Input
Amino acid sequence: DAGVIQSPRHEVTEMGQEVTLRCKPISGHDYLFWYRQTMMRGLELLIYFNNNVPIDDSGMPEDRFSAKMPNASFSTLKIQPSEPRDSAVYFCASRNRGAYNEQFFGPGTRLTVL
Amino acid sequence: KQEVTQIPAALSVPEGENLVLNCSFTDSAIYNLQWFRQDPGKGLTSLLLIQSSQREQTSGRLNASLDKSSGRSTLYIAASQPGDSATYLCAVVRETSGSRLTFGEGTQLTVNP
Output
């Protein structure tokens, strides 16, 4: 299996622009998670889905952030409009329902908002 | 609110040394605990997962223990190698938090040849 796939790996944009991050979970995994990692706050859960349905979005910082999972093999995290404080590494992770919550992470997208 | 603390924040050891990384959590009502490794600029690699009913898990030179009642876990690395240099993170899932992982800030390990 190719593991969790994220794109792009690096994104540089200007303040005010829309940013879309993409994730393909491991095939057969029915949970998908979006995390953000910064030096100041460490790793934080933003939102997670079960069977394509958002379960917990309490970590989404503002209305500027939105996430969708239109099918079992694809999810997006969108920031509109982006701000410099959104600069971080965004990770996607997935897990199998029967795997005691062992989560497998993608390589991350490093976002820089100028 | 669950808080996870890792000590030390950074550790530098000579090759071949056995070492222990510490993780503590404030709420002992956890479902499981997971140790990860993160290399610079890379994602997280799952190393070991311990269920709340277990006391330890082993994988190769790694051994993770869990004392749920005292809110502590340790990751023991035997015969350390330069390739073990990375940041090690522990994360817990509370019994009532569904699938939410709460992470510690990590221990940055450097193994010197």
User: Anything to note?
Assistant: Chain B touches chain A through 23 residues (CB under 8 Å).
